[in-house]
Amino acid sequence: MRTENIKKTTEFVSQNFIYIFLLMLIAAIATVNPKFLSLTTLRDILLQSSTRVIIAIGMFCILLTGGVDLGAGRVIGLAAVLSASMLQTPDYARRFFPNLPQLPLWLPIAIAILAGISVGLLNGIIISRFSVPPFIATLGTQVIAYGINSIYFDLPPNNSQPIGGLRKDFTFLGSGLIGSIPIIVIIAVIIAAIAWVVFTRTSFGKYTYAIGGNRQAAEVSGINVKLMLLLIYTIAGACFGFAGVLEAARTGGATNNYGFMYEFDAISACFVGGVSTTGGVGTVPGVLAGVLIFGVINYGLTFIGINPYWQYILKGIVIVVAVSIDIRKYLAKK
User: What pTM value is reported for the model?
Assistant: First the structure.
């Protein structure tokens, strides 16, 4: 009986490690400084994590298929620069386009998201049509996206200067409030809710899991795997593009280096959140928990005065432990 209870407890901890660790992390920081449990702190963490949630959702779609996107960060930077360059105030001294009339807010945002969709579509075509491994395909498009962004960013009269002076209606998306809740947090929650519905209630979600679980079996069962991969990478590109727009709105500016290494944070958050390294396993709530864990680490350690370089060590430990648990579950199932 005792052995059975230990086995059940071990299994419960293994299945819910991410949530248990998140609660333990919050409790540990709050023990050092109880003010960490304030609503202001929670709002700040959610505000900083909002764009990361959207990026992680896009990466989640891809990782479920057993693929990866190494170019997400550069797409974010491209979208940030595109949207910011067209949404500056008319009286700003260093306008990217000095003679550009004031555009409706939705147009530059749509152009930036379309750029993300274009890169995602290109990834999908290369991977599905030409069977290039996702690692190689997205590594190549990462360099292309960064090159295009840098050339655009270096256009005169900007000449690679940080883009600032953004319009208030644009920055309102990143720093505005509805009541006491940041708009950007509401946007992230809506996107996460849509993703949860898609991956738990629709055929698209079931097909995505099936492709990650066993691609050959999915093809035999009648799933158009090539079309699904094309759609998945395109949707992910849209998520990355939108996240870039919101990041520019949140920070009030943009450079061609925006988004650098964001893809690795998103991949880490997904793996920590229970997304399998082999594909076919993972949940949206788990991804959200993974993003929150890194948000709590980033904000919490600084909050209690610990050297920020310890963040990297703690993040590395969390990633290794989470992936080790995932591999153990995979081997046990096998």
Answer: 0.94
